[in-house]
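Quarterly update from the structural biology core.
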Amino acid sequence: MLKQHQKSKTNASDHRTDRKASDHSFSSAESSVDFEKIFFEASTCTLEKMSKDPMYKLFGDCRLDLLAKFCMEEDFLGAFFLDQFTEIFSLSLSDTSDRELLFSRIHELRLSSCLQSDCVTLFQEKGCQENREDINNFLQEYILDIPSQILGGMLRENKKISEELSYQVSTNDQRILFYIAGFIVANLKKKCYRLAKDNQVERLDLLKRLTSKTSGTSFVAKYDQWLTKNSRGGLVRPADNFYLLVRELEISIRKVVDFNNINSESLTSSKMKEHMMDSFMVNYYLKELCGDCVNSDLSGLLEDIIKVFLTVRGFAVARVLRNKLSGKQNKQPAKQSNSLRQVLKTTSKN
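Predicted structure, tokenized:
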């Protein structure tokens, strides 16, 4: 049976509200990382690795290490490829189609006329004496090696930013988030029984990875006080990485919503959901939890997690707003009664 839009599987990530179907958000921009800086550092690391790799000499004379040293001395290769790799890594990488497109673009770059002619010509203009075939082989190796360096750099920068932003979340808030993380798993377990049998087994297997059987001694154990206080043995204890994922959702929502100036536009759930789906660290922690489940619909699982989180978070925000509007937070003390009983009580105290 087909769902809406005549597709068997329809995800929110396929229908962005604020951009065209072919347009993609830049995940590094979500966290304000400097991609240009990351790329040049990745390029330098790739060239250093290639210049010292002994594997190139195993099968006879090889010029790749000499070409890598030449590029390090002349320092021109990174500037040539910057625009191409900026375009390639502008994908959010939040779903399978984006990741497939990334590798497809890298393959296109390896076969492009820009690489085969312009870049090889640039080497010769810089004074390189190697032949065109060796230069082309070197460029193929360079393009294959640099993506892993770029992704590693993006992960380090996003982790650093995430660590800095996590200090803005108070200890008490993190205890509540630990409790909410467990509630999300329990809520999704109940809902998964509405699914078809095959999908139900797959979803339950994924949800098992989000839980922890023991309290343990990890660094997140200090946030389990609220859960332990309210538990009578039935509350779910989230896995460490799942708690960190939920904390990233909280950090992400605080970037989007100014809680001191809330209006109808700032509380648009579709925009908040898309921002969370594109978060680099949210996707990173999801891959840490379920990365080996290659045939599973992780994008659908993430959407359901975000939906429950936004529901819980929305009720909390609504309660605060309701209290403000009703004047409960600035409630004046009740006027003293003039009844005989109150007069006698006041007299006895004096």
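The chain is about 65% helix and 0% strand.
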